[in-house]
Amino acid sequence: MTAGARSSRHGAELQDDGAEFRVWAPDARQLELVLESDAGRRVAMRRHEDGFHVARVSVPAGARYRYVVDGRGPFPDPASRFQPEGPHQASMLVDARGHRWRDDAWPGVRLHGQVVYEMHVGTFTPEGTLDAACTRLDHLADVGITLIEVMPAAEFPGRFNWGYDGVSLYAPYHGYGDYDALKRFVDAAHARGLGVILDVVYNHFGPDGAYHREFSAHWYTDRYENEWGEPLNFDGPHCQAVRAFVIDNAAYWIREFHLDGLRLDATQSVHDATAPHVLAEVAREARRAAGERDIVLIAENEPQDVRCLASPDAGGFGLDAMWNDDYHHAARVALTGRREGYLHDYEGTPQEFVSALRRGFLFQGQYYAWQKQRRGTPVTREPAAAFVHFLQNHDQVANTLRGERCSTTSHPAVVRALTAVTLLGPETPMLFMGQEIATTQPFPFFADHGPELASRVHEGRRGFLRQFASFASPAGQAAVPDPAAVATFESAKLGFGDEVRELPAFRLHRDLLRLRRTEPSIAAQSREALDGAVLTEKAFVVRWFGPGRELLLVVNLGTQCRDVAASEPLLACGRDQAWSLLWSSEDPDYGGAGVVSPVSAYGWALPGTSAVLLALGAGGEPA
């Protein structure tokens, strides 16, 4: 950014010749800038025809300020860059150029080849800060992570929160460190070859601490519904400033913090009937802000609408990838045997895994009984990497009674086998923090609100979990943790050191991700060069046909099968070839019972609850 250029149309910015303060209040007659760090001096702001009120003042970085709107207030800046004492207090003027970057040679990231790691800053370390998180970057690099996805870090109320109740979308949460803390984290990650993307929420503001309405009622619309709060106004009267606020915000994170992309929360609730859609503009401006760097844009979209991936010319948003809830839901059923709530339409069968690996979404327009409507859209030419597969994420862990991990709710051997499917499959894999060490720390929902709102949030959480029959009983409802309790938040904090390198789960994930990088057939992430077949009610195979050597993953989620019919062509090898054992989930190094190859000179027999990777080679007896 050149000296004196604005990074956004909203907010306050320190420039070479003074500070400029801009706030949108189209219906207000008079705004005053209150300089609290200058004995409360008030400065009358000049109203522009576009509804912005502007003032230029000579004040230093660190100055605290608020606004008075037609005599009401004072209120913090809706586009504040930092709230050092929380969203209800004064905003702070920052020096956006204060950090000295060391990543000039960093090229950015492309989607292909990424391994995503979802992280909540407040619970990733006992300290819960970005600087503390820097001390664990070597751990992530060692296990094979390439891209860190930070859960929302925009300013929210209280001492702890998941981040989806953000209210000051331009301000990094003050509890995670000072204004430059996120920049230091990104810089340190880039120095280790790790990319960083940020989860952003553009479908609503949180219920406590959002002062936008004090400046204009046009921030919101009543034309749509949103289960988390009032929808933002992206297509109604006076929507242009609201659109600019969000579009510029996306570009701001990329430009000012050198982030490598964004994860867009609940895109189905970003309502816009105009063209181009606001999310298409978000994608365009985020890429423009990156300049020559490559970035990755990932959508969460519950209806699984591949419009997210289509180009803007085709009416899409131009994003790179989408979370695949179908894959998780099938895996969750296979791991737990439960088909309650929104897991109703999944069976955890081999066919579901083969279909997900070959075709992405499982529901591509079929009737979905749980919602009593059709679900999903057809997947055609979208690359495999455009679908993010996971066994755990923040929502899916928390959507259990106490936020239990699959390492505590499922048989370890089944977890190891499905970890192999997830990390070796052609889609983009994602781990949730602590998964790589099979942590038993829960991750319940937590949000620090005042008593009245906290009570409503707790009851809302109970109500959501009642869709699961197991959690709907009086005893189950009584066991749902209080989101506002400090103990609930503290229970989610991860505490580990270098000793985790010796843990079986760490070795499992490290070795699988090494195979993902070093085996050309797997690294290619090609759905077209992969095929799969069901062997038994609980077993299936996946075969890679290139561009490297041919590989075969044999997965059995059930009991041992002694005599498997050899009539499946994917088991075949040439007359002068044989399958050799390359890797097994039952290796004792991973906590397994011992390695047994499924193939011998006399046929196929599948070890129980295991995944085995075989390589096709020349001559010799099979392993």
Radius of gyration: 26 Å
Count of individual helical segments: 17
Strand order of the largest sheet: 10-11-14-15-16-17-20-21
Indicate the mean pLDDT.
95
CATH superfamily of the largest domain: Glycosidases
Overall tally of structural domains:
3
- Poorly predicted runs are 1-5
What is the level 1 CATH name of the largest domain? Alpha Beta
What does this structure look like?
The protein has 623 residues and is an alpha/beta fold. It folds into three domains: 11-92, Immunoglobulins (Immunoglobulin-like, Sandwich), CATH 2.60.40.10; 116-512, TIM Barrel; 523-618, Golgi alpha-mannosidase II (Immunoglobulin-like). The protein has 17 helices and 29 strands. Helix 6 runs parallel beside helix 7 and helix 12 (412-424) runs parallel beside helix 16 (504-518). The longest helix is centred in the middle third of the chain and has 19 residues, at 239-257.
Give the SSE layout.
Layout: E1 11-15, E2 18-24, E3 31-35, E4 41-44, E5 46-47, E6 52-57, E7 64-69, E8 72-75, E9 91-92, E10 116-119, H1 121-124, H2 130-134, H3 137-143, E11 147-150, E12 154-155, E13 168-172, H4 181-191, E14 195-200, H5 212-215, H6 239-257, E15 261-264, H7 278-290, E16 296-299, E17 321-323, H8 325-336, H9 350-359, E18 367-368, E19 373-374, E20 387-390, H10 394-398, H11 406-409, H12 412-424, E21 428-432, H13 451-465, H14 474-479, H15 486-491, H16 504-518, H17 520-523, E22 530-534, E23 539-544, E24 551-556, E25 561-564, E26 577-584, E27 599-600, E28 603-606, E29 610-618
Parallel strand pairs: 10-11, 10-21, 11-14, 14-15, 15-16, 16-17, 17-20, 20-21
Antiparallel strand pairs: 1-2, 2-6, 3-4, 3-7, 5-6, 7-8, 7-9, 12-13, 18-19, 22-23, 23-24, 24-29, 25-28, 26-29, 27-28
Helix pairs in contact: 6-7, 12-16
